[in-house]
Specification:
The structure holds 3 protein chains of 3 kinds. Chain B is 61% helix and 4% strand. By secondary structure, chain B is mainly alpha-helical. The radius of gyration of chain B is 26 Å and the shape is globular. The chains are: A mainly alpha, B mainly alpha, C alpha/beta.
């Protein structure tokens, strides 16, 4: 029998040691996220919205637009007395508008070189209302005058609410900019609070099981059966009747009530999701190991179960952040929103869109339909807030889809 | 037999959920001031409620004063009246004791639950916005009013559901099978944009677009026997024809108590559903008209719901395609087309149907907005009008419980279908 | 040997044609360059032809499966996982070939690669798989292009989906018919929403559909002419197999005899008569149906005459059903023609184009004609005879695999059955089409030992009856010893030893095989310490250089770390890939010089572990 030499140490190829499994898993997630173009686009849009929100918080943006002067030609007749009867759209030259109180000295010499105060469609029920001007019938350009961005005026409030006072006219751009941080803050706050509440409720339900689970699930069943908007309305109505709303704090209180209502509506969804995940995590070996090594139930819950059940929350969180402004808009559209001034919406993208929609379709279109004459449809006051809302929601959805695909173990190969 | 027991069991689960909803509404409404509670809680409240004429009540709050412990109590919002306005109606004050509002809370709750289940959901508040806006509902029972409007909502819901299922299931399957290829990317873009566009925006834009397109051609709204566009209408003669000064797409205006889309002289509406009744009366064009009026709102609703469902169908199909039995089917030699549609499709349908049940709450929640925009006379529009300036609590409560009932019954139907499709559920 | 990049035969080389036969598929384009993902040179070994057990290159009729140099790679986030690095495998008709190895050595991947079921991040890179002479990997090199991502070890795979779909269509013609597969977890492998009868019936319809529908049509023709199968006038055909014809008047006589035998309670005789009825009518389903109908009848058998008549009357079809069955027959024939075309394509290596487009058109036409049968109620009614026949054929199959109450099992769902029964059903499904090759991927791993024995026994019997070649993949050497005729030992994606089972067990040459055999606990040496092979399975993304076993090998030599050993023949059918047996003796290096050069004496089985 031949004597065999002792085996040499196995020569394994050298590789860099892996530093941290969780970090590595995050790097892997980022790799799969990076490969998803749509998700990157979403992330980019969201980041730019965030930057605008931050930037706009520091910038002194004007709330209202001071009556404008535009260089245009009104055609035959005296503009101030002849409007709107002989105001024809066809006669309007491309305008250059300013938003200053007095016409600028170096007026552009277009269409005869006159600066005219452009009147709004007058309120037929209150003809003595001061006609307030805004840029003429052509689309306003994206301009930067006097240190402010200008996407056009937004004569919100419209006919129905101008009772003898000057209807405030917003600058679309500034309204959007101001709305951006409110939108973000409200969405994140609502969904965050709902997620936290749902997280704890679902974790407790899933972990302890038994009667707690049953009871909590019935509870969430009830909440989930009631349609969202309806439930928010009911809650806000009921709680609003409790708390007397007066004066200038009315809007804040109503906003708070709205947030409370939304949070109450939102937490059951998260409770459901978390409970499903907890039921799976509960059966894992590391939970058993933790309990076997002496951890109390509460400790396992907090240290092991909750961190591992949080993944579906991220996905749902990112989905819901995009849905909240739409819901707030729907509520405002139905006439139920918090208002700073009567007829003036809360500066939040959803509400701005809603009021614009109302304004446009009911007021402007209505008057155009009924009155067979020239009328002005300020489509820009609908388009830009709508676009902002659209991009926000779509970016959030793309992001959530990207996160979901990146975290999905089946797709990470 | 097993199916029957399963159905009965699921229907019995409907009851606790409804009681829960009613309880929550009860608790919320208990927070309201007494006068509003009267209007919302008790079925006997209303014009026939025990109340007495109290001319000495200093409040000019019409119908919102109440007698409590023999004292006149005025609560609720006050309306500032100018010196010139006249207090037109005598003040009726409701007797709180007669109505039982001073009984302890659990007793009130029991009565409340009993009334909810027997459809005594209160009466329409005569001073609310909705009462002023819709002809003929003043003083009516809320349940009766809602029953008149419900069929339109259900028809709209069914049409939207049909569109959603027909579009999202095949598209989701195809998107999953061709993962990351152009079809998948297009489907994902569609689903994202569906999520991102608010329904009120889309709906209003569609209405506005159609209106603007037809604006230069006044009278391009075709005058049909049931819709006079731009004409003066002689209400007395043709009161049974549906009429509207402007025919918005989807609008059907009628005095709610009588379906006036029928030819003159019709006295019966067997089911209350417009399309079905039109067909029953052999009025095919009318049926088509009512369907087409609902097409645009159904598309808008579907667009929003397809977003979530499409993504879910795609994900569940992706999950199913990686399972073992699909591999077995391929190894058996089944053509790929049939593997996708039959083997994988059936299994992913199970999961899809579960999600469908969960999305009902959101689906139905979007109805107020759509019906408001398109002027469909459904329960959603009732809600939208009921929450305007003068809230109508009874209407809100009634609509809440009605919608909840719809959601829960839809969930039950979905569960039954799930049991039918998946033998593991019904055979235990 | 240029052109296709794999060791190609000039007769099989893809030749672009121009002229009147040019189609975009055939456009004169040079064949795709060989895939750029290549094994590192240190792994490739000297470029020599790998010897195989079968000496000749021509198609050996007995050789059902001939796998040559099969490479399968998985393109993952962590890099390219080289699951199979040049596998050579053969399977003969009527024999069982075993593939043994540890978990993670690539056994299942082998089976999936042969059936071309490899999932998304994985692809069969190159090689040839001859199934009865047809190359299943025909057209492989055109299906994907590989690009290395600069800076990483990853590779981007650009697939041509059109060609992959075509390849899938070709494989769908082969799978189930030529190659059948059974899987490891029977509980997961069946579709939970369809009953067993549905699933097995689908397999029967796919592969034996023509028999089924022709039987139905024949029985229908027979019954239509003479007023029913059970009438006096119907005279069953005498197939002449059973000997002298029974002098009975028509089917009625057979029915009488059936009822008489049922009254006696003798089950075998009843079964025999019922099968006779089935043979007489031409519908195989009558046999089991009548048997199970009358099985428990006892003395009241005569009262069941009406039910028997009803069963026989089911052979009479309505007009709609007849049309539907005929239509199905047409579709099945068409499908089979297409499958045969694909097979011919894979056998000859030439694309059968012109006729393929013709047939494709006809198929589309047929599909259109088929569409009006998709109305719910109509289709169900029309399908009933086929469904019925399939159900009872499934019952026959389940009887064949010895399931006790086949009717109940067939009606039930997969979740109602135990693992053993499900695996039997799966085997029934796989063998229903009498395939040439059966791939069994660890069929008994998920089952208890007693059930394991039954299943293996069943597979043996079926193999003898049907004559398929079985490739059995397992990690259990006991199973191998029990059923296999020929064994391949796999390690880390390579076959390191292969040979007849008695040879391998008697004289294991490769140290890994020796280790495997040594680690079997021996009952007769209770005090012996259980030995195991030190170390663990190597990472297939960064496999060890040279011989992949060398880190764990007790006889590792310096040459093992550098050069991959070529498979050598040691004996008539015994192949081993180990430097210990390499013919050109490398001069041993300074260290571990005691390892002898040349062919050493076989190391003892219970090896000395230093």
């Amino acid at each position: 029998m031949t004597v065999v030499a002792p085996p040499t140490a196995p020569v394994l190829p050298r590789r860099a040691p892996r530093p941290h499994p969780r970090l590595d898993s995050m790097k892997r997630t980022w790799y799969f996220f990076r490969r998803n173009t749509l998700a990157l686009i979403g992330l980019g849009i969201l980041v730019s919205i965030g930057i605008i929100a931050l930037y706009s918080a520091t910038l002194p943006l004007p709330w209202t637009t001071i009556p404008a002067y535009c260089a245009t030609d009104y055609g035959p007749g005296n503009p101030t007395s002849g409007y709107p009867h002989n105001y024809t759209v066809a006669n309007v030259c491309p305008v250059i508008c300013t938003y200053e109180v007095t016409p600028p000295p170096n007026a552009a010499s277009l269409c005869g070189g006159q600066w005219y105060k452009t009147p709004l469609y007058t309120n037929s029920s209150n003809p003595s209302a001061t006609p307030v001007s805004y840029a003429g019938a052509v689309a306003p350009t994206l301009s930067y005058t006097g240190g402010h961005f200008n996407l056009g005026p937004m004569p919100l409030g419209g006919l129905a609410t101008s009772i003898g006072s000057v209807t405030p006219i917003y600058n679309v751009a500034s309204a959007l900019a101001r709305g951006s941080d409110w939108t973000l803050m409200l969405s994140v706050a609502i969904v965050g609070l709902g997620a936290i509440g749902g997280l704890f409720a679902g974790a407790i339900a899933g972990f302890y099981g038994g009667i707690t689970d049953d009871f909590l699930m019935r509870f969430t069943d009830i909440f989930l059966s009631i349609p969202t908007i309806l439930f928010v309305i009911v809650i806000v109505t009921a709680l609003g009747a409790l708390i007397p709303i007066h004066g200038t704090y009315g809007a804040d209180l109503k906003l708070l009530l709205l947030v409370v209502g939304f949070v109450l509506v939102w937490w059951p969804l998260y409770a459901r999701i978390v409970r499903g995940q907890v039921l799976v995590v509960r059966e894992q070996k590391y939970v058993e190991a933790a309990r076997a090594s002496g951890a109390s139930k509460g400790r396992t819950l907090i240290k092991h179960i909750i961190p591992n059940s949080m993944y579906p929350i991220f996905i749902q969180f990112s989905l819901d952040v995009g849905t909240i402004p739409l819901l707030i808009g729907a509520l405002v559209f139905l006439g139920f929103g918090p208002e700073m001034f009567p007829g003036v919406p809360f500066p939040e993208w959803g509400s701005i869109s809603a009021v614009s929609v109302n304004d446009l379709t009911v007021d402007m279109l209505g008057s155009c339909l009924v009155y067979h004459g020239p009328c002005i449809i300020a489509w820009w006051q609908l388009l830009f807030p709508g676009l902002a809302l659209f991009f926000f929601a779509i970016s959030v959805n793309l992001l959530s889809d990207g996160i979901r695909d990146a975290l999905d173990p089946r797709l990470r190969r | 037999m097993r199916m029957a027991t399963y159905i009965i069991r699921r229907c019995l689960q409907l009851v606790p959920v409804l009681i829960g909803v009613v309880t929550i509404t009860f608790l919320l409404f208990s927070a309201l001031p007494i006068s509003d509670q009267i209007l919302s809680k008790y079925g006997v409240a209303g014009p026939h409620a025990p109340c007495q004429y109290n001319p000495t009540c200093p409040c000019e709050q019409l119908n919102k004063a109440s007698v409590h412990n023999g004292q006149c109590e005025c609560t609720g919002t006050t309306v500032i009246v100018t010196p010139n306005s006249i207090c037109q109606n005598p003040v009726y004050v409701h007797d709180v004791h007669a109505l039982g509002l001073d009984k302890p809370l659990p007793i009130q709750w029991l009565v409340f639950v009993y009334h909810s289940f027997t459809f005594k959901w209160g009466y329409v508040d005569n001073n609310s916005f909705i009462a002023g806006h819709i002809f003929g509902i003043k003083g009516q029972a809320v349940a009766h009013v809602l029953a008149g409007f419900l069929p339109y909502t259900i028809e709209l819901a069914l049409l939207s559901l049909a569109i959603i299922l027909v579009i999202s299931i095949p598209l989701g399957n195809a998107a999953a099978v061709n993962r990351n290829r152009p079809l998948d990317q297009a489907a994902r873009v569609m689903s994202f944009s569906g999520f991102a566009v608010p329904s009120f925006l889309l709906g209003s834009l569609l209405v506005a677009g159609v209106t603007i397109l037809f604006l230069p051609h006044t009278g391009a709204f075709v005058s049909t026997p049931w819709c006079h566009a731009g004409e003066a209408i002689d209400h007395e003669f043709t009161y049974s024809w549906p009429q509207s000064p402007e025919c918005y797409p989807g609008q059907i205006v009628f005095p709610y108590s009588f379906p006036t889309w029928m030819p003159y002289g019709t006295t019966t509406s067997p089911t209350g559903f417009p399309t079905v009744d039109a067909l029953w009366h052999h009025q095919d064009w009318l049926a088509l008209d009512s369907l087409l009026r609902m097409l645009m709102p159904a598309l808008v609703i579907a667009y929003g719901s397809i977003a979530g469902l499409l993504r879910f169908v795609r994900n569940s199909m992706l999950e199913v395609m990686n399972l073992d039995y699909i591999r077995t089917a391929r190894a058996k030699g089944v053509p790929e087309r049939i593997v996708t549609s039959k083997h994988a499709g059936r299994n992913s349908l199970n999961v899809t149907i579960t999600v469908l049940g969960l999305t009902f709450a959101g689906f139905i929640g979007g109805f107020p907005v759509i019906e408001e925009v398109f002027h469909i006379n459904g329960v959603g529009e009732m809600i939208a009008l009921a929450i305007q300036q003068n809230l109508d609590f009874a209407m809100i409560f009634g609509s809440t419980i009605l919608f909840t009932f719809l959601v829960v019954s839809a969930n039950i139907i979905v569960d039954v279908m799930y049991a039918y499709l998946d033998p593991r559920v019904r055979l235990g | 040997m240029a052109g296709t990049g794999v060791s190609g035969d000039s007769s099989r080389r893809y030749r672009p044609t121009g002229g009147h036969r040019s189609h975009f598929f055939n456009r004169s384009r040079p064949a795709a360059p060989p895939p750029t993902v290549s094994t590192p040179s240190r792994d490739r070994g000297p470029p020599q032809a790998t010897p195989r057990a079968a000496p000749s290159r021509s198609y050996d009729k007995d050789l059902v499966l001939d796998v040559q140099d099969l490479k399968t790679y998985f393109f993952t986030y962590d890099g390219v996982l080289r699951a199979l690095e040049g596998i050579n495998l053969q399977a003969r008709a009527g024999h069982t070939t075993g593939v043994v190895g540890e978990t993670g050595c690539g056994k299942s991947v082998t089976a999936f690669s042969i059936a071309r079921l490899v999932g998304d991040p994985g692809r069969v890179m190159s090689g040839k798989i001859y199934l009865n002479g047809a190359n299943l990997l025909w057209g492989l090199e055109r299906e994907a292009k590989y690009r290395k991502i600069v800076g990483t070890g990853r590779v981007k795979v650009v697939r041509s989906f059109r060609r992959i779909k075509q390849a899938n269509e070709r494989m769908a013609a082969v799978r189930g018919r030529g190659v059948a597969m059974i899987f490891q977890e029977p509980g997961q492998a069946m579709n939970p929403v369809f009953s067993i009868a549905d699933q097995l019936g689908e397999a029967v319809l796919l592969h034996r559909g023509q028999e089924v529908v022709e039987g139905i049509l024949k029985a229908d023709a027979a019954s239509r002419g003479v007023g029913g199968l059970h009438s006096e006038e119907f005279v069953p055909e005498n197939t002449g197999e059973e000997g002298p014809v029974e002098i009975q008047t028509g089917m009625a006589g057979l029915v009488d005899r059936l009822l008489q035998v049922a009254a006696t309670g003798d089950r075998e005789a009843l079964r025999a008569v019922a099968d006779e009825v089935g043979k007489a009518t031409g519908l195989a389903s009558f046999g089991p149906e009548l048997f199970y109908l009358l099985r428990d009848a006892g003395p009241q058998a005569a009262s069941r005459r009406a039910r028997v008549m009803r069963v026989l009357d089911r052979a009479k079809l309505s007009g709609l059903q007849r049309a539907y069955v005929r239509h199905q027959r047409r579709l099945i024939i068409l499908q089979q023609a297409i499958n045969d075309l694909y097979l011919k394509e894979m056998k000859t290596g030439k694309a059968q184009l012109a006729s393929r487009s013709r047939i494709a058109l006809r198929m589309r036409f047929e599909k259109l004609r088929h569409m009006h049968y998709n109305l719910w109620g109509v289709k169900r009614r029309a399908m009933r005879p086929i469904k019925n026949e399939l159900f009872w054929r499934v019952v026959l199959l389940l009887e064949g695999v010895r399931i006790a109450n086949p009717v109940q099992v067939a009606r039930g769902y997969p979740h109602e059955l135990s693992g053993g029964m499900l695996q039997r059903a799966m085997i029934a499904m796989a063998l229903s089409s009498e395939p040439a090759l059966l791939l069994a991927d660890e069929p008994t791993t998920a089952l208890d030992v007693t059930i394991q024995a039954q299943i293996l026994d069943l597979m043996n019997q079926l193999r003898e009856r049907v004559g398929t070649a079985i490739v059995l993949i397992t990690h259990d050497l006991g199973v191998v010893a029990e059923v296999c005729d020929h064994v391949n030992v796999m390690y880390a994606g390579l076959i390191i030893e292969s040979g007849p089972v008695h040879e391998i067990f008697r004289r294991p040459l490769h140290p890994y095989t020796q280790g495997l055999l040594a680690s079997i606990p021996r009952f007769d040496q209770p005090d012996k310490e259980l030995s195991s092979i030190p170390g663990s399975v190597p990472n297939l993304i960064h496999p060890p250089p040279g011989c992949r076993f060398h880190p764990r090998c007790p006889y590792a030599m310096p040459v093992c770390k550098e050069v991959r050993p070529i498979p050598q023949m040691e004996g008539e059918e015994h192949m081993v890939a180990c430097h210990l047996y390499s013919a050109p003796a490398e001069p041993p290096a300074a260290t571990s010089a005691s390892a002898p050069a040349g062919a050493p004496a076989a190391p003892p089985r219970t090896g000395v572990r230093a």
